[in-house]
Amino acid sequence: MTLSNEALAALVRADSVHKRVYTDPEIFALEMERIYGQAWIYVGHESQVKKTGDYHTTRIGDQDVIMVRAADGKVHVVYNRCPHKGAKVVAEGDGCTGKFFRCPYHAWTFKLDGSHLSLPLKNGLEGTCYDPANPDFSMKAVARVDSYRGFVFASQSAEGPDLKTFLGGVASSIDNLCERSPVGEVEVAGGTFRVMQKSNWKVFYENLHDTMHARVTHESSFVAAREEAAALGEMPFELLIMDGNGEPYEFWEKLELRAYHNGHGYMEGIFDPTAATRDPVSRDHFAVLSDAYGEDKARQILGMNRHNTIIYGSGSPHTVFQQFRVIRPVSVDRTMIEIQTFRLKGAPDAVFDRALTYANLINSPSSNVMPDDVEVYKRCQEGNQTRGGDWVSLHRYLGTDQETPDGMVSTNGTSELPMRNQFAAWKQYMLNPAPTRQRQAQEKEADRATA
Amino acid sequence: MQLLDRTFDVSTVPVSGASLSAEAVRRVEQFLFHEARLLDERRFAEWLALWTEDGRYWVPRFHDQANPFEQISLFWEDKMLREVRVRRVENARNWSQQPLTRSAHLVGNITIEGLDAAGHLIVRSTLQLTEWRIDQRQLAGAVFHKLAATEDGGWKIVLKRVNLVNCDDVFANLEVFI
């Protein structure tokens, strides 16, 4: 039974949410339809499919999809399903399918945009409705695909805002990531980590801008880094990036949190951008950018100091350390994180070295930082399954945030504004069961079948 | 950054053979068994002392990964980072080590491969590792040790490379040394 809009609306209060939003499989199924079925979701970066036939498999919510480079050079996103028996056409992972897709079950073939190419032994289909032009015989394309500076997003709904409008204020984080390259381009490089968390997908989004957890959850990590630095008599980069979580509350209270429509936002950086003139890697980077853009613009690019950006439903790009943590819901209590690292084309090698080190030491499954996050997420999931209370609090600095034309800005960096903003978006999506193009098509097919 | 110093020789392909007496081979085997036992008993301080000053601990993220400089790794740690990890897992507020990771290493198929360019002994072994922390996990792989002879006739680890059979798996966490 589908929950009524009244029942869904009652789960979100101004200062709290009902724990059911994290634990109820029925709500998870509705999210896959109403959030992941409508929003623009990051599929992958164009650099992951460089040549014709290259593909990258991933998921939009609970839907297996393939991002593929077609013969015309365009990137397409199609559902990973053969229209004959429904078999997944390609296995999980990345690869090159050549000039066409070929289903491993009965050798139906499809062009790289998913449209029907051929199938064996056509004479058996004479006199039937078989028609290569009929979409029933093609792999289905996701309703809308668009790319922003090489970052490919897809929406399962034919309706809704265009990608640029959807991204709103957080498009500037993608711009900044690209502009850190002197040619304005980035590419996925160095491989990706995959991490499974035993918690609901929303828990991770909330944590990304939760500044109150850093010095509590990560105490063992920053204390270890500080003890080691004291023993060494210096604080090298590897320890510095672990040390940040240990800043005092006064530091976190001064940070700016931005919240945009659709649940997006960003958090101001933890590390000092003026370190650029002190540290040799940043100095070299600055020199290359100055040559390309001029000194003022270079200073502005490296001075834009953002820590985690949130693109709600897709994940979290990190501009300074060239990452995208792609967040994929698996089930109501399982979330997969795919951590991509980017190379800035034309930037000094040492800049990529730093990104690689950051990925290894901060976001890998074997880092000294993430295991404690993963542990507390799991404890939230398990605690919320007990009868020990029904509501989850979001009340910190409620009512103090400032409204701006494109969203809200915190007056205090420990505000729970980002979580309230995410649930405002959640409610907006969940109360809007607008049929996706996919379901409209299904309805049309059903009508045709009964007519 | 020292960590990405490309002059560090990560190759585990021998450049020459090594001729060891049966007794010397036995001592190498005992060294590997002892190392495994220190990890199982969480005697991390003693484990840290098995390493040379510039020794590196490496668990590649990819099968046949050439080096830790161009691609991510599950672990790529020098002395400083090994010490940080030990400090963290021994800190009282290490939430994800409550309860602790328990492990049993089974080391076998030990072969002496030869010597590297600097004369370090390259030893290959097969590892079966059972881990328990809430869930049971099985890790396995080929381990390469590069060992430097010490003046007192013992060994120190210059490089430990663990090629996990499931290095491309989805992991929740890998908190302790493999």
UniProtKB/TrEMBL annotation, chain B:
SUPFAM superfamilies: NTF2-like. One of its GO terms (biological process) is 3-phenylpropionate catabolic process. InterPro entries: NTF2-like_dom_sf, Rng_hydr_dOase-bsu. Gene3D superfamilies: 3.10.450.50. The keyword Ligase does not apply. One of its GO terms (molecular function) is dioxygenase activity. It comes from the Bacteria. Keywords: Dioxygenase, Oxidoreductase. Belongs to the bacterial ring-hydroxylating dioxygenase beta subunit family. PANTHER family: BLR3401 PROTEIN (PTHR41534). This is Dioxygenase, hydroxylase small component. It comes from Azoarcus sp. (strain BH72).
